[in-house]
Amino acid sequence: MTEKNRMLSSRECVDALMRRYIEKGEQAIKENPSLAEPYHTELQGDWVGGIPNKLKILGHSFDVILIDDNETDRFGSMNPNTNTIRLNKNKTQSQIETTLLHEIIEALDHNLEIKLEHRQISALEAGLYQVLKDNKLSF
Predict the structure, then answer these.
(1) Which pLDDT belongs to residue 4?
(2) To 10 degrees, what angle do helices 93-112 and 118-134 make?
(3) What are phi and psi of 13, to 5 degrees?
(4) Phi, psi at residue 44, to the nearest 5°?
(5) How far is CA 108 from each of CA 103, 111, 112, rounded to the nearest angstrom?
(6) Rounded CA gap, 99 and 34, in Å?
(7) Are 82 and 103 in contact (CB under 8 A)?
């Protein structure tokens, strides 16, 4: 089998997808440097920059909180005990969006007891984000 005809593993597909979006992001930043600026805003009302302050996930109400975290490289977290999703507002808009999607998948995994590995959650995050963004899907 030639290299060209070889089937890619799911990990290789995720890696290729992530490289593609990093390259697209870098190109977009070259064309519009303001995209690289961190997303700074205080949570006001129901939505901030497309980020809701509450989500229902499998019937549970989750608070979505934008935090100011310059001291760590963390993008976000999900606490199933307090039904809270925390997102680092010092990241770019696309990083905040993908992190929200990641934490939603974490909540689904926890509540449905799917037992996904973290790399699987990250792969779903990357794939779903690409489909939603490239097709301008909103429900």
Answers:
(1) 58
(2) 130
(3) -65, -45
(4) -135, 135
(5) 9, 5, 6
(6) 20
(7) no
Domains of the chain (ranges, CATH numbers):
9-133 (1.10.10)
Q: Measured on CA atoms in the order 100, 75, 18, 21, is the torsion positive or negative?
A: positive
- Helix 10-31 with 118-134: angle, nearest 10 deg: 50
Can you tell me the distance from the alpha carbon of 24 to that of 132, in angstroms, rounded to the nearest whole number? Answer: 16
**Which amino acid is located at 95 in the chain?**
Q
Over residues 77-84, mean pLDDT: 96
Percent of the chain residues topping a pLDDT of 70:
65
Contact 108/57 with Cβ under 8 angstroms? yes
With a cut of 70, say whether residue 14 has pLDDT above it: no
What's the pLDDT at 63?
Answer: 95
State the pLDDT at residue 42.
42
Residue where the block lists tokens 């005990």: 81
The mean pLDDT of 38-54, rounded to a whole number, is 57
Q: How far apart are CA 83 and CA 96, in angstroms?
A: 18
pTM (two decimals) = 0.67
